[in-house]
Amino acid sequence: MYAIPLVGPHAAWFLGESLLQGIGSNPRIAWIAANVTVAVAAQVLVGVVLYWSLGGGWVRKTAWLGVIPLMAALNVAYLSAIPSFFLVEADTAAERNPWTEHCFVRGAELRPMRTPVTQASPSPRAWWAALSPSGRDTLLRVPDCSLTDAVLPKAGQSPEGYLDFFTSLQFASPEGAAIIEQTDRRTSLRTWSMLVDPGAPLQPLAASSERYQSPPVLSHQGNAVAYLETVVGSGPPVLHRVQVRKATPESTTTEIDVDLAPLGPASYVLMDVDTQTREILVWRNDRPLAVGFDGQSRPVPFEPAGIRAQSSTYLRLGTGWVAWDAYREDGPFQIGWSLSGGSGRHQTNAGRGVTSAAVDPTGRLIAISETTTLSVGRARDVVYVLRTDTGAEVFRTYLPRYTRSQVVFFGGGLFGYSNLEGTRILKVFDAQ
Fold first, then answer.
1. DSSP 175
2. What distance separates the 2 farthest-apart alpha carbons in the chain?
3. Under a CB-based contact definition with an 8 Å cutoff, are residues 258 and 295 in contact?
């Protein structure tokens, strides 16, 4: 019986081998006990059936065919049912929707977009979306809930049917201006352009190189772009600087280079540039760091206390912050905040991670979108909104599994999230 194979999507193991590995590596005693109990029960069942079948004629021997459903049952038990019981926490909270619908944009799904992590005031009035079923890029504007398709270059095809290049949205300003990346299929060269408006022609910026290894970011005002530049020949250790350049020929912003070398060698991710405050925001190793155009570092309050945040799981609002786990090997994900509206910490149900999070401009509400991190179980996606002063939930809706909805607080007191049919925009009332 212990030679019964457990067949997963990428590998297979014998039942006995899997039990021995689990005893040596799984710290959960209850889980190990469940595995052993099921195995012993199956062994006893097989022994009883075998003893009974050998005591009679050929008709009893047909009981041996029961090994087929037994194999199926053990595969379900060890690959799905038992792991789900210990890894997936059941949803018990009821849906809650006290807000009225402002509009529903059918067929448009909010895209996961890099935007300035410092939250704009007022909140954005536009967000890029994907139109189904084609997936083409379109800009959703509120409060009129209109869609404007982006006019992007169309790739030709080789005789073999391959596209000449691929385009993708890399970064967007609060008003919808975007950085477009075009990747050549043959050379893998990436070139970047500025899209001021969905219908406007692309304005060339730069191309990837030894100096520029990541796309530029747009300023809050959309008048400047900033590149994280690797100083060629500086390593080891490799040094960096940030180049702030005009986004368009008409821009009046001051062009400047901000040297990061005085801050020491480190791993940097460029997150923000603000030409009004003359400041850039980078993620240095494991925390945010603000640097003025004069090269002087500026304090950024951030005390995550065990939250494993990355540049993509951090938001800044005034002197406050929101951050959540980018990854956890085991257990629920955590999200924490320290804002003018209040401070607190929240954790997801076990078996789910944070897909997206957003904070409203007053610092009083945080929206969270969760998706399962496991291939087992039947955990639904969920979008909910918390008060920052008490952590109380003021909105909750469940979505189909793997919806992976983005959440956005728009200007004018509007909140948006996507389901498999489109994007729902709600009018946010004061949290009670």
1. T
2. 95
3. yes
> In this structure, how many other beta carbons lie within 10 angstroms of the beta carbon of residue 106?
10
> CA 291 from chain center: how many Å?
26
Q: How far apart are CA 193 and CA 215, in angstroms?
A: 10
Place of tokens 């945010």: 288
| Dihedral sign, Cα of residue 211, residue 215, residue 221, residue 224 | positive
Q: Answer whether 241's CB lies under 8 Å from 229's CB.
A: yes
Rounded to an integer, what is the distance from CA 30 to the centroid of its chain?
A: 32
d(CA 417, CA 246): 33
Cα separation of 371 and 352, whole Å? 5
Give the tens place of pLDDT for each residue, 316-365: 999 999 999 999 887 899 999 999 999 999 999 988 999 999 999 999 99
Per-residue tokens: 384 = 């909910």
pTM, rounded to two decimals:
0.88
- The answer on pLDDT for 216 being more than 90 is yes
Which tokens go with 128? Answer: 């890029």
